[in-house]
Structure prediction request, 442 residues.
Amino acid sequence: MTTANQSLKPLTTKINENGHIEIGGCDLVQLAEKYGTPLYVFDEQTIRTMARQYKEAFKAYPKVSMLYASKAFMTKSVVRILDEEGFGFDVVSGGELYTAYKAGADLKKCLFNGNNKSYDELQMTVELGIGLISVDNFLELALLNDVAKSNNKKVDILLRVTPGIECHTHEYIQTGHLDSKFGFDLTQTDDAVELIQDEYKNLNLVGLHAHIGSQIFETSIYYDEVEVLLKEMSRIKDKFGIVMTHINLGGGLGIKYTENDCPPSVNEIAEKIISSVKENAPKYNMEEPEIHIEPGRSIIGTSGVTLYTVGSSKQVPKGKKYVAVDGGMADNPRPSLYQAVYTAEVANRPDDEPVETVTIAGRFCESGDILIKDIQMPELKEGDILCFYDTGAYGYSMSSNYNRVLKPAAVLVNNAQSDIIINRESYEHLVSLDVIPQRLEK
Ligand code: LLP
Prediction:
């Protein structure tokens, strides 16, 4: 069975009677007219389907919790949807924690994660009573113990470790290899455990946490990751008598950005994880653990598209043809940051035959602001609406106001209804945090 992350387009995508692309029963051209462009559009059905496919895939192993990696795209409505689907949230900042809290997420099902959490963030985490904290380093062990102590609490923690497993993805989004800024090296865990046992009495070590990387297509690394963590927990049990019960495997499952991408289904990943637990728990003399997984991209990525309006174009004599759209690297930095490749279609005439190869450029003042290099397109005209697929993850969440361009709106579509979930910024928003000191006033 295929799962939603293996689809290039949101599951409800079709060409409607107007000859336009439609998602969630909404005509994209009409959405562009109603809300303006650039516009992020999220298909609720694709999000919910993928969330349910995750749960279904792990049905054979009841001790699993799903935590959505909020960094992929977080807004209060997304929290509501995934909370309804039974997900908790992996948060990595006070801002993400606050969003989960304000949207009414069950904070007991949440985990705070990150390599340099501030004292204030730890304080907020402990005060709000988040379920688990993944401690990344020695400084944090000390800070968190202080915070917990001053709140008269004992907090459950995981230790984030680098399992030394490499995956084939862009080097910026690999995290589980040894030379990584995240987590304890496995040669440092003994010192950490000793400190927890002897000094940090307000910390309760319940498990280990790792994340190997993102946009992963290999399944075997999940098998290996489970084994490395169980083996390490077993070693710690033998040496310190501390019995840990949880493993958090991070996220990472890839999605299909182009026809050439063949990510595995979530079932294949689940099968590797479960079989590794079944084989390795007895091998290392451990109980079968509680498993946490933290998918981000694979939950939200496929559900989201971005709509742009075509503006100017330039034919370089004897060179490329550039067609510019009204967004670019500020609403989607992934092409310039990771050389990420996207698929796009003309929303107002998707059936038109491609006739030329063009490069889709953004509107930002940088030559590197190219969204797609060399894509086959019908002859594009000013006013055409382009639909970029698979922009749901790490698009809005990494967007900026570069060039003081306003951040786009986001809408949620479902059953022919569209609702704003993030307002478009206004120029007033943009200047609202600026302050002119009195001596510079006119
Ligand atoms: N858990 C941890 C500890 C993580 O660091 C991440 C992602 C996830 C879960 C979720 O991974 P996912 O399921 O989304 O692959 N900005 C990059 C991706 C950075 C991922 C960082 N960590 C991109 O646009 O490709």
Observations:
- Residues 84 and 105 are 9 Å apart (CA to CA).
- The radius of gyration is 23 Å.
- The pocket of LLP is lined by residues 69, 71-72, 90, 113, 173, 175, 211, 214-215, 250-253, 294-298, 334, 338, 393-394, 398 (CB under 6 Å).
- The chain has twelve helices and 21 strands.
